[in-house]
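Researcher: Let's do a round of design. I'm pasting the structure tokens now; please hold your answer until I've finished.
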């Protein structure tokens, strides 16, 4: 009986260690998207509560833009338009921040997962909670976190959270 109790305690300890390491790894990533739920991309691919490491901050951009809802928004995305997530699949995302609303505010997000020439899935929300940590000068970084619920075109929503750290670039169309 003692051996069974010790065995159960060891499994619990090992399981806790793996969960803790996974959380630490995610929190150390400068750019990631974590989606809670099964994401049916197409007939051949389903992700099960995936976390996508979106790479280095210098592979992303953040720039001021004018938008219909604000004269002072920041658009964040990939410099090359998309990011390889393996097996020929690509991920595109755009996140719009409204920096006039300090600390926690609402933002907008759009995510596309697809394989070149094949159907994929589009997800998005007009009301993602965004916490802006810092907005550096042009050439420095814009950092923050976001969370909320994203919706595909034809189903229930998925909870999402992530983190961003992107190179602040100058938009020649906006005087700042």
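Researcher: That's everything. Go ahead.
Model: Designed sequence:
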């Amino acid at each position: 009986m003692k051996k069974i109790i010790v065995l159960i305690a060891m499994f619990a300890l090992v399981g806790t260690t793996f969960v803790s390491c996974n959380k630490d790894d995610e929190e150390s990533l400068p750019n990631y998207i974590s989606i809670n739920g099964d994401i049916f991309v197409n007939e051949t691919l389903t992700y099960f509560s995936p976390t996508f490491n979106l790479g280095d901050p210098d592979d992303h951009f953040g720039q001021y833009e004018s938008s219909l809802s604000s004269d002072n928004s920041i658009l964040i995305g990939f410099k090359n338009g998309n990011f390889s997530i393996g097996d020929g699949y690509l991920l595109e995302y755009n996140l719009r921040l409204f920096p006039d609303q300090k600390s926690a505010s609402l933002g907008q997000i759009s995510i596309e997962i697809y394989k070149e020439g094949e159907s994929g899935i589009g997800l998005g929300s007009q009301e993602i909670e965004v916490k802006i940590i810092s907005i550096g000068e042009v050439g420095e970084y814009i950092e923050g976190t976001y969370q909320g619920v994203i919706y595909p075109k034809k189903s229930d929503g998925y909870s999402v959270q992530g983190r961003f750290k992107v190179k602040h670039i100058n938009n020649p169309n906006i005087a700042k």
